[in-house]
Amino acid sequence: MSDILLVEDNEMNREMLSRRLVRRGFSVRLAEDGGTSLRRVAEALPDLILMDMTLPDIDGLEVIRKLKEDARTRDVPIVVLTARAMPEDRARAFAAGADEYDVKPVDIDRLLEKMRTLLARRAS
C-alpha cells in the first residue's frame, strides 16, 4: 500500500479525493496548507505527494522547491493538482520541481495512471 500525502486547502476537495484514493488501496495522509505538508513529510516520508498550487500559508510551488532541494525528500514524486490550466502555470510547476501536473476537477483514472507511473518509476 503506497502512502500518499494529499495537500489541499479546500476541505471538500481534500475529503472527496482522499476517500477515492483510499477505496483504491492507498494510505492517505492530509495537509491543509504548505507548512503542515512540510511537517507531515518530516514525520514520515510519503511515497508520493499530491500538491495544490494555491495554499494559504506557503505556496505549493515554494513547498515543492523546498522538498526538491532537500536530499532526503528530492526523490519523492510530486503531482501538482490545480485549477490553473494555463501553459505558464504548468511551466512554473515543472520549473519548481514537480514530476507531474494535473488539473481540477480531478479525473480519477487519469490521475491514478500518473500516480502509478511515478510510483513504479520510483520503485525501480
From TrEMBL:
Occurrences of domain Response regulatory (ranges): 3-119
Pfam families recorded: Response_reg
Gene3D superfamilies to which the protein is assigned, alphabetical: 3.40.50.2300
UniProtKB keywords: Phosphoprotein
Keyword Phosphoprotein carried by entry: yes
4-aspartylphosphate: modified positions: 52
Residue ranges crossing the lipid bilayer per the database entry: none
Protein's name in the database: Response regulator
Species, as recorded: Polyangium mundeleinium
